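S.,

Sequence below, as promised.
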Amino acid sequence: MRFVALVLVILLSGCIQSTTEEGRVFTVQTLDRMEDAGPMYSMKDNLSQGPVLVLFIGVGCIGCKDWTDDLREHHQEWMAMNPPLQIVSVERYPAYETHEDVAAEFGTPESNHYTPWPIVLPSEEESIQRIEDQANMSQSIFEYYGLPGTPELFLIDQQGVIQWESNTYYPNEDSIGEIERAYNKVI
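The prediction came back faster than expected:
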């Protein structure tokens, strides 16, 4: 019986491993501010310039606001690196929070937690896409990222593969260093 279980684990781990190593991206609507660089955000286009740090946010999420504020302090420095470390905030609760709610909390310099990088607004159904041809997959964006709570951060390498994931609700004294170490591993 152990032999059968071991064989299954070995065989299935190969199948599971190959799926997670395939690049995935999304193309979704933005708040359409100057910071968003247009009404649609293409992760594939951004990955052609450098890795992307994805931050799932919610209007009522205190940790999201803390992460946004901490990341904002490093945004200019990261964008000046070669290649740049880009950030995108993803509204996680489209069924409960309107575009206006997101804009009021994160969207303008007068907002409580201004976000000077793109903010995207996917629907619950929007599909994740294969990086090579941007074909829609059967998983939604949220399903692909494991139905993340907020805040949740992921570092995506230039091949569209998740290389790092946060494990804290609030950023701590080592959070920025952890992101920068993950960035250095993928470039």
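The chain has one domain: 21-173.

Coffee later?
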